[in-house]
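thought: fold this chain, then report.
action: predict
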Amino acid sequence: MIVLAGLVIGAVIGGLTAKRRGGKRLDILQYAAIYAIAFALLGMFASIFIDRMAR
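observation:
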């Protein structure tokens, strides 16, 4: 669930960042995709860390 939350939050933050900087539609989509991937990876590492610490 942390990975999916990171994916959605990253996409929203990326899209808003590109829009604030005056990007066009493809710029907004690219920023949203990159931020979504980065936040999903962070969420994956957080999930693995939490799982390892819980054992």
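thought: worth noting. Residues 25-54 form the longest helix (30 residues).
final: tokens above.
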